[in-house]
Amino acid sequence: MGGSGAASVIVVGAGVFGLATGLALAEAGLKVRLVAETASGLTASGVAAGMLAPAFESLLDPPSPDSLGLLAAGRDLWPDLAGRLGVALDRSG
User: Fold this and answer.
1) Based on the domain organization, do 64 and 79 belong to the same domain?
2) 33 strand-pairing partners
3) Mean of the per-residue pLDDT values of the chain
4) How far apart are CA 21 and CA 17, in angstroms?
5) Phi, psi at 22, each rounded to 5°
6) Residues 6+ apart with CB under 8 A from 43
7) For the chain, what is the HEC assignment?
8) Residue 32 within a domain
9) Model confidence band, residue 56 (pLDDT cutoffs 50, 70, 90)
10) pLDDT reading at 23 higher than 70
């Protein structure tokens, strides 16, 4: 991608995972452009209302039963990210 102002990386999707990916890449020094086709709140992130429930995902999603450990590890990274961003995280379920 050449030219002045060109993004080093384009992240498609600006839900929770797209935003977290964009943030990590930007913190690594890359110029990031987020692209979202759908309005905020209408994506999976908006529908899930911020819920990260690995036990529920591994129970109901056929491809996920063997991924509970990985899903739980990802869920457990959120408090640090929320703290860095100054976002209140409600884990009361």
Assistant:
1) yes
2) 10
3) 78
4) 6
5) -60, -40
6) 13, 14, 15, 36
7) CCCCCCCCEEEECCCHHHHHHHHHHHHCCCCEEEECCCCCCCCHHHHCCCCCCHHHHHHHCCCCHHHHHHHHHHHHHHHHHHHHHCCCCCCCC
8) yes
9) low
10) yes
Q: Quick one: tokens of 90?
A: 């409600």
Instruction: Tell me what pLDDT residue 48 has.
Output: 63
On the question of pLDDT at 79 being above 50, the answer is yes
Q: Which of 28-66 are b and which e, b meaning 16 or more Cβ less than 10 Å from the residue's Cβ?
A: eeeebebeeeeeeeebebeeeeeebebeebbeeeeeeee
45 and 59 housed in the same domain: no
Mean pLDDT of 5-12: 84
> Tokens 């899930």 sit at which residue?
48
According to the model, what pLDDT value does residue 13 have?
87
Residue 92 within a domain: no
Q: Are 31 and 15 in contact (CB under 8 A)?
A: no
Domain that holds residue 72: 52-87
